[in-house]
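Weekly modeling sync, notes
Attendees: AB, CL, MP (scribe)

Item 1: holo prediction request
CL wants a bound-state model with coenzyme A before deciding which constructs to order. AB pointed out that an apo prediction alone won't tell us much about the pocket. Agreed to run with the ligand included and paste results into these notes for async review.

Input as submitted:
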Amino acid sequence: MASHQNEPPAFSDEEYHIRHSNGHDESRQIWWPFMQNLGWNRGWYDLPTYMDHSKSPGMLLIFPKGGQKPVGHIAATVNSNSTGWVSLFVVDEAYRGKGLGRALWEAMMENFHTCGTKIIGLDGVLEQKGNYERKGFVESTLGTVKIMSRPLVCNKGLPNNVQAGPKAEMVILDQVPHDLLAEHELRLTGVQRTELWTEENLFRRPDAQGWALVRRAPPQGVDDILAWTVIRRCSGGARIGPVYADNAVCARSVLAQAMNAADVDYIKALPLENEPMNTWSSERIRQKATMIAEVWTGNPNAVTVFEELGWSYGGADYHRMWLKGTAPKAQSEGGLAQRGMYAIFDAAIG
Ligand SMILES: CC(C)(COP(=O)(O)OP(=O)(O)OC[C@H]1O[C@@H](n2cnc3c(N)ncnc32)[C@H](O)[C@@H]1OP(=O)(O)O)[C@@H](O)C(=O)NCCC(=O)NCCS
């Protein structure tokens, strides 16, 4: 990542200044404690995943004048096809309500403007919905992003009705050309993230594993992909998403496959920085660790697929919003997301 040390600040007044982060090490010093304190159940490895595929200059940090430690951050995530996502909008609790959020917001919008981003979305918490509405964002009428969870599978076994049919084969994602994953996602969501689904980004992480249900292995084209999913480590245990699928049977099949992998051994093999769970016994992990997913209610089958495999509502939704109400076609009324998107990748980047 380029150094931004010498560039002029994106914003500056007598008390604060905003500049781009100089890299993941600097960003993580503030981002990871924020994630842990907010209980947002992210993973240590998520930050590079969020940032490295984006065409924007990276995370924006706000500093008190003379201070070395940032007190808030935000990022304009810019995808390959001029769509974008409002990401990682957090200000330290002690500094909230003083206009820092607004200053960060304006600097982020400037990044979008410079990058020529045409469609901008976000997944907002309920508390900030009014704030985003004042800034021109309109909630999708199709549905919310529902946080769902369940205990680890832990040898309990899964329902045996997860077969997708004789013509389908389950393969690890390494066997699927990664550009096909990006193409499949683009088709279903209208968002193109060619540089996210790559060996250099997501698949270099030690904790990322994925599976695809395909008509033939290796798949020759995007039409050969029936479903796919990914698991990652997060604070509470394991995160599953996205789940993209042709139909509910295929969705259930890849979800069950991922759930079987998210076991105690997986958690123990991949400790996260400064996490209490690192010292837990296997028994405690078995009892307390969870799987989490962000399930899209705009697909009428999505919640049922998860519920049938023992998942339940975690008690909160993200509100999917689009600037001026302009969503990609695939995520508009009648778009392919309504039947193909079961769980999103991550509310932080859509
Ligand atoms: C969201 C967040 C980053 C805002 O940061 P902040 O520094 O408090 O923001 P500001 O002081 O600039 O206020 C932001 C807006 O909320 C309004 N606001 C601030 N405090 C408020 C309060 N107590 N009641 C009502 N409105 C308030 C401001 O008027 C401002 O609106 P404007 O931009 O239209 O003028 C901060 O609240 C936060 O970190 N929350 C926890 C993390 C989170 O939920 N992030 C959003 C995820 S979607």
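Recorded for review: The chain has two domains: 11-117, 145-343.
Action items: CL to compare against the apo run; MP to circulate these notes.
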